[in-house]
Amino acid sequence: MALLKEKGFLLDQQDKRVKEQLSKIKHKIMVMSGKGGVGKSTVAVNLAVGLSLQDFMVGLLDVDLHGPSIPKMLGARDLKLTRRPDGKLGAIKYSPNLKFLSIEPLLPSEDSAVIWRGPIKISAIKQFIGDIDWGELDYLVIDAPPGTGDEPLTIAKTIPDAYALIVTTPQEVSLIDVKKSIRFCQKVKLRILGIVENMSGFICPHCGKAIDLFKRGGGQKLAEEMGVRFLGRIPVDPRVVDTGDAGRPIVGSYPESVTAKAFEDLIRNVVSATEEMRREVLEEAFMRIAIPISTPTKIEKDINQAVLFALYDVEKGKILVKDVVRKPDDQDLNEFLKEQVATHIVLFEPTPELAERFNLLGLRVLATDEEKANPDDLVKEYIEQVESRRTA
User: Fold this and answer.
1) C-beta contacts of 333-336 below 8 A and 24+ residues apart
2) Quick check: 189 and 233 in contact, CB under 8 A?
3) pLDDT tens across 149-192, in order?
4) Which residues contact 287 (CB under 8 A, 6 or more apart)?
5) CA triple 334-335-340, angle to 5 deg
6) Over 60: is that where the pLDDT of 8 sits?
């Protein structure tokens, strides 16, 4: 029993360190893809480097534990973790505005194989965030492995306010997998920043003209179909391969190239989208409202007895999604609400102490004294209040 208590304490301490580090980071972006081979890491590296060249403080975290490529693409395999005067380890400094971290510098050799199961990978990712000093950052760009496995799931649960940037190619086989990534994000309550169409046309090395080698426009069409932002298209350029292998990202090596200009457009769109999504939360244009319910049409009066929760995704005055989710018996209520990334909670006649408890979690508390009120009606009524304030 003592050992179980000790583990619980250690887990609490690790979660506390993670929360402290994340509080210093303004925007967190997970770059993901439905399948491999679409140039996801290339997009992540050039996005991070491009943001740093625009005077943003940026961190680049490689959570592809089995196939880390960030050190090679940055030409930084010889760089090591820094150590502060207080003994704490800091992320690897690539440039004045860019730090990065990958599993590769921690391995005995660059060709060492990482053979880890889920729990070890989850612990490693949390250590990368909580035990390494990242300092104050404007952006943390996270390069996740393809698919919807342990690594992206861990990021979604550990960083509930992260955004997903999904990379695809114009080909249909890639677009099919992107839909799976979108469904994954919706399932784990991860807000989607947008879609990037990589390998969109080919830049001829002789004449400089674009040729639609792998089709073009599929990513933009899918974004419109799925109702998410289209952030830009990046053409195929032989120099992307050369600069990636040489450890000199193209945004810095060939800033006047068509491809670098395409990355600049992507970076502008990312900056604009992150600021817009941040404002939406602050101004309540986006909300995820949690309501404890005893039946589908009745609120649960005692929050501590709540088992079922109705969750409403509201964006710009409209209910986009409504889910009914059961809280696991062994899960703490605070952790459950954090995992669901709730922004608001509706409580029946809460005491000041109870309201303060949820305010400290970062939730807006909406009080009701209508015992028989229908949850749907409560949400619609609150949306009307918010919209009237926004247009006043």
Assistant:
1) 333/303, 333/304, 333/306, 334/361, 336/309
2) no
3) 899 999 998 998 899 999 998 877 777 888 899 999 988 889 99
4) 281, 312, 313, 314, 315, 343, 344, 386
5) 100
6) no
Question: Under a CB-based contact definition with an 8 Å cutoff, are residues 358 and 338 in contact?
Answer: no
CATH superfamily, region 286-391? Dinitrogenase iron-molybdenum cofactor biosynthesis domain (3.30.420.130)
Q: What is the CATH number of domain 17-282?
A: 3.40.50.300
Q: How far apart are CA 350 and CA 368, in angstroms?
A: 8
- Buried residues in 215-236 as b, exposed as e (16+ CB within 10 A): bbebbbebbeeeebbbbbbbbb
Structural tokens at position 259: 């491809």
> How deeply is 377 buried, as exposed, middle or buried, from its count of CB atoms within 10 A (0-12, 13-18, 19+)?
exposed
Q: Give the separation between CA 189 and CA 319, rounded to whole angstroms.
A: 15
DSSP classification of residue 215: B
Q: Dihedral of CA 296/301/305/310: which sign?
A: positive
What's the whole-model pTM score?
0.81
> What does the alpha-carbon distance between residue 119 and residue 114 come to, in Å, rounded to a whole number?
14
